[in-house]
Amino acid sequence: MSVLLSAQDLRLAFGGVKAADGINLDVMEREFLAIIGPNGAGKTTFINMSTGHLRPQGGSITYQGRQVLGMKPRDIVRMGIARSFQLPQLFTEHTVLENAAMAVAAREGTFSPFRPLLRPAFRAEAEALLERFGLTAAAHQRADALNEGTRKLTDIAMAVAMKPRLLLMDEPTSGVAAADKMAVVETLARVLREAGVTAVFVEHDMDVVARIADRVAVWGQGRIAALGPPEQVLSDPMVQRDVIGIQPGGGAHAAA
Amino acid sequence: MSRSRLEILAGLAGALLLVLIAWGVPWLRFVLTIALAKGITVLGILLLLRAGQVSFGHAMYVAIAAYTVAFVAPRMPEVLLLLPLAALASTAVGLVVGLFVMRYREIFFGMLNLALSMVFYSLLEKLYTITHGTDGIRLPVPTFLGQTLTGPTYEWAVFGIALVLAIGFALLVRVYLAAPLGQALAGIKTREARLEFMGVPARYVLLSAYALSALMAGCGGTIIALTSRHVTPALAYWTASGELVFIAILGGAGSVLGAFLGAVVYELTRVYAAANLADAWQLILGTVLLLVILFAPGGLVGMAQGLRRRKSA
């Protein structure tokens, strides 16, 4: 497996809070890498730096050997790095189908002023995409009328429509009803594996992490405290105590 | 019947009705030509509204075209050359100004447009040697394909050009709004960040709409200049810009037909109200705007659609 994204000595502080304090991380081609850790550890900041939303004060991020720091978000996405958001970023006045078709149109790069958005080719691709995500029933609902799970999946579907090689997801299951969570995760993992997408995702639910991650990176105060396969990392006493919140002598409560 | 086909039929029926009125009531030909010119301009306001942006300065582009016509007509009075030339002048200024204002949103976008239009208004007023200040400039009678037309023939010719442009731009804007570029305008309103993360430069999406709006305002301004044959700085005054926004809201901000329905209703009301209730007509205007905003946010077109739904229900 080759390295797809590589972060070297990333540094970024907000005032006195160190969101990245010398982060070194290689993301391997086609792996699912989970990022866990307490709030404020710098997990989302890492996604924001990798997608051009934030610029670190030091260090570098290379994608397939090319430096991405200093590039605009829209140029980074054109290189093959897409992202989804903790709070779904949907076009709320459009339907789910139109949202998906917009992403398809954006990927095609032909933002034509003359041919309709829902032209047969775009519509067919958007419909196929929604079907893979199990969103067909919601296709004609407006995006502001959806439940959280559907909004999350639509948000991720739009990122997948960009046909990225690397997908960065910020808490793909937060806000999804507990009963739906595993179904959403299974759907997501299946679609991404089929598409051969490498995924980095920030996640708080350890069941989700254990279920689909190939590797887990534990963030703590801007540093990577642990990195390895989930069975190893999640059983590490330090991780159990500081991140998962299992007290010595039993009793677990999830770190929110 | 599909909504889109119904809209096109209603548009054609409306165009036919305008021709009949212009034919039956000759003195209204002037009023209707002005209404069409404003309707074309309001189409541009609609595009910007689609992106959630309100321009309180678009009368500037009307005035730029009108003054271009006034400056050029004495040397080259051919309408079929004046029209593209004036429209081009407005579009060029729109592109340059657009590069600046596309960086701003909402109140800043609105106020910047207002400020620029008022600077332009002041220039028109103060540079007396060039613009003749508030006296304005009178136009010579222009020619059509080299022919000098007079009286009703001239009025019909300008009315015809206005109608053709209105139909052409209405269709263009419909197509534009259905295309990804037009849909992305609504994306600017609801989720601009997403556009960027999809690789779409949102500012240029807005710039394209802004330039198109300046082009349409330029065509509107040309028709106004040809119709009134007298251009004054008042064309660029902020109340003229406000009038365009008023018409857009009155007609229904979501609809191409609304721009023209709003413009015709507005101009007719203005003519009759100004004649009969000279002191009160702005009061009437304000009241109507209040009522539309409170009870018919979809404007006249929204009201018509509501009636149709109720009938079919």
From TrEMBL, chain A:
Pfam families: ABC_tran. Residues 5-246 form the ABC transporter domain. The keyword Transport applies. One of its GO terms (cellular component) is plasma membrane. InterPro entries: AAA+_ATPase (IPR003593), ABC_AA/LPS_Transport (IPR051120), ABC_transporter-like_ATP-bd (IPR003439), P-loop_NTPase (IPR027417). Keywords: ATP-binding, Nucleotide-binding, Transport. Gene3D superfamilies: P-loop containing nucleotide triphosphate hydrolases (3.40.50.300). GO terms for molecular function: ATP binding; ATP hydrolysis activity. CDD domains: ABC_Mj1267_LivG_branched (cd03219). This is ABC transporter ATP-binding protein. It comes from Teichococcus aestuarii. The lineage of its organism: Bacteria, Pseudomonadati, Pseudomonadota, Alphaproteobacteria, Acetobacterales.
UniProtKB/TrEMBL annotation, chain B:
It comes from the Bacteria. GO terms for molecular function: branched-chain amino acid transmembrane transporter activity. CDD domains: TM_PBP1_LivM_like. GO terms for cellular component: plasma membrane. It is found in: Cell membrane. The keyword Chaperone does not apply. Keywords: Cell membrane, Membrane, Transmembrane, Transmembrane helix. The chain crosses the membrane at residues 7-24, 30-49, 56-73, 79-100, 107-124, 156-179, 200-224, 244-268, 280-304. InterPro entries: ABC_transp_permease, LivM-like. Signal peptide: none annotated. This is Branched-chain amino acid ABC transporter permease.
